Amino acid sequence: MIGERRRPLIDADLVVRATLAWLLMAVLLAIAGFSSVAERQFNEGDDIMRLLQVRDWLAGQSWFDVSQYRIDAPYGASMHWSRLVDIPLAVLIVLLSPIFGQPMAEHIAAVVVPLGTLWIAVLLIGRIAWKICDEEATGLACLAAALAAPLLHQMRPMRIDHHGWQIVLFMLSVNALMARDARRGGWILGGALALWLNISMEALPMVAVFGGILFVRWLRCWGDRAWLASMLQSLAAGSAGLYLLTRGLTPSLPMCDAMAPAHIAALAIVAVAATGLARAETPRPWLFMVLVLGTGALTGLVVLLQMAPQCADGSFAGMDPLARDVWLANVIESKPLWHHPLDLIAQILLPAIVAIVVSLRLAARSADWLHRWHLEYAALLLAALALAIFLPRSSGLVAGMAAVPIGIQLKQWLRQLRNLGRPGKQAIAVAGMIASLLPAMPLTLMMHAAPSHASSAKAAPAISGDSCDVRGVLPALGSDTANVMAPIDLGPAILLDSPHRVVATAHHRAHRGIGDTIRTFTGTEQAAHAILRERRIGFVMMCPGKAELRLYRSMGEDNFADRLSAGAAPDWLMPIAHDGDQGVLVWRVIG
Fold this sequence. Notes:
Elements: H1 12-32, H2 34-38, H3 45-58, H4 86-100, H5 102-132, H6 135-146, H7 149-153, H8 163-176, H9 182-199, H10 204-220, H11 225-247, H12 261-278, H13 286-307, H14 321-327, H15 342-364, H16 368-390, H17 395-419, H18 423-437, H19 441-445, E1 483-485, H20 491-496, E2 501-502, H21 511-522, H22 525-534, E3 539-542, H23 547-554, H24 560-565, E4 573-575, E5 585-589
Parallel strand pairs: 1-2, 1-3
Antiparallel strand pairs: 3-5, 4-5
């Protein structure tokens, strides 16, 4: 598409500018997050579980088996996470362990991998600006990306879950839209989307948006039909190959939260429809094209629902009702944007709105391919913003996209500051820069003050509230593996620094354990005792000051959590003394 800008794939000047912007933020992130790094304090429970998945793999668990056998004690839980995200962590740990030992190698990997992911993201963002604008705008776009708080939140040290890689693959997909050759660009785009879907099904809405943009290209020019056909071919073939690579031939559980044969079959049907239509050399009426591709999409959907009928009820179909209504309903990151604080809303909305306005203005002032490109870019921005509004944890996508038009606009504002003597226009330029960048800066500069959701030292709840230090308590449980009943949000911290198993962590595949944890703490002593005996629980652990416990206590007067918090434990629980945080209460189950 960007045939008018003949430049090499990667320019040395681009790499330098992107690296300088990255270095600036890497230093600031390291300073702001020094205490978290020094104390090995992970950002969320998902980061801990990612490290545990890598540990299990390196300890001999099959590449194809991502089950967590220490969750949902004593049964274990099948996870849906992709092995692909484990690879860079595992490589660094294997390389560094002979030098530093595995614990320190894990620590180094938890810092290096997210910062490396940030560098790749900034480079891909800069490349978009570099392809359509000049070097100054490229550098400013890289700087805008390096100051985007929603993006940095997913790529700061100790943030090793998959969200950073989702941003990278999204930006790679946008870069693919700029390819000079339609077939090659379509295959790169489809491959990037297949990787993204393998990592997270949250990519589905954006896959549909990319498909819509390529369909519009096809409608506009029959010669551009190779874009959509190649993308769908690559997406279907890539998804099938990645499924075999990461899941193998072993039948998996009939779940809808990860790519499965049913999804791949649906993609293949759509790809066949598009390929057949694209083989025609002469243009077809637009209505005929819509009917062919629409029929292919509808057929694919029917096949998907025939192979996996439970998917008609969404990714969380079949969840334990109590886990869904009490736990999932209170997970703040899954709530729409209007449930979040105003400062977070501003950090997401203001730069995105500025970027959309700039993209539309650039489209209005451009012609031919550049006009169409800016319109497509604005459409992607709008789609990413809509996704971020309904799923704020995806806000890094829109932040990455917004950096390019913001960089272009910053160039204009800086020129106004330099050349315009009138204070009014200078004030407008300054206000625009503040609106574009300032919403990100408080979170960037005060990252260490943001509450983390879980850590080895401090496990904070998904339902916001007080935290408690469980690390110093774990030696009192002994070295023999035992099953521990603890609040949901303490689970990852217990698993990280002990050999024990827990009933629940905050992961929907472990919904049975989540439901039983809620039933235990919100039920009567007799009901709790029955669950503990059925699950062969050795220890009960809790922190009365945690918001999760306060929620449980509010769900029933004189329930199990209430009685334990009041010091009225039943005689079949023996208190365990320990030298750790005295806010953590532990009992051995003796009857």
